[in-house]
Amino acid sequence: MMRLPAFQYVAPRTVAEAASLLANHGPQAALVAGGTDLYPNMKRRQVEPKVVIGLRAIDELRGVSGDTRQGLTVRANQTLTEVANDARLALAYPAVARATGKVSTVHLRNMGTLGGNLCLDTRCNYYDQNYEWREALGFCKKKDGDICWVATSSPRCWAVSSSDTAPVMVALDAKVRLVSARGERVIPAEALYRNDGINYLTKQPDEILTEVILPPAEGLEMSYWKLRRRDSFDFPILGVAAVVRRDGGTVREARVVLGAVTSAPVLAAEASAALVGQPLTAEVIDQAAKAARLGARPLDNTDLTNSWRRRMVEVYVRRALREIAGLPITDYEIAVAAH
């Protein structure tokens, strides 16, 4: 049985108090909301904070405010279940509701939070093992070692971003608020992520992600599709978020974002560009899906093979865009793309 290491737990009542504690304890501290990511990592000795700062008692980190015309603000401590079941989000931002509803199991969605999923640790077959397994291997660059076993000559870590909500927020061009004892800042969700398996967030160690600011929903059409071995609870090995805005029948804006491909959500720029100025027909969608596959470089450190996952990029981009366009989606498409 893996046990938690010894640590001090503190439960501030306000964001300001939490930010002060985080600043005072420095790198020895870690934030926790639902605990579905941090505590398993602590049991595996992947992180070993001396102080854990709990955010669950902070009322100002709860709730959804605003309206869909101006844009909704979702506080970071909303559980994934609450976000998935929110009627306003389901109606105006269905990709957000679907992505949160696809995370793990219902039990963990009842615990896990939106903020936690956006800051989810990167994953890798060589990293997500118990301490003894990693010790026998000689550890890895992400924790305790100096070699990335995915690419042994690489100077960087190639652990993969596995958040379901991150690609959706990037595709929506949402913003996040970061608060510290030094002040606060609002940045695009895309700017929160760095394509590095270790330093995967641009959020500073003393900052707390407090809320997500969604753009006005009017005119936005969106979809999220997730690929995983077991559809009941696994992490994504591919996530596709697509958001378009049409003027008449012509696509005016488009953002297709891939998750679980690299160490950060990645904008499929060629696929997005292939849609702009075009009607959302089956032929245009096929072109965009192929462009996404050609530009994708899945890493060989998660479930199933990277070559198959790359082929599935085309399939899942096609499915996401066909759903937006109101075109039928069948398993036949998967069979065609896989050969």
The Rg value, from CA coordinates, equals 20 Å
* Widest sheet: strand ordering: 4-5-8-6-7
Q: How many structural domains does the protein architecture include?
A: 3
Percent of residues in helices comes to: 25-40%
Q: What's the CATH C level of the largest domain?
A: Alpha Beta
Main β-sheet description? 5 strands, antiparallel
Strand segment count: 12
CATH architecture tag of the largest domain: 2-Layer Sandwich
Quick synopsis:
The chain has 339 residues and is an alpha+beta fold.
Task: Chart the SSEs and their pairings.
Layout: E1 8-10, H1 15-25, E2 29-32, H2 38-43, E3 51-54, E4 64-67, E5 71-75, H3 80-85, H4 87-92, H5 94-101, H6 106-111, H7 114-118, H8 131-137, H9 165-172, E6 175-180, E7 183-188, E8 208-213, E9 220-227, E10 238-247, E11 250-259, E12 266-267, H10 269-275, H11 282-295, H12 306-325, H13 331-337
Helix pairs in contact: 10-11, 11-12
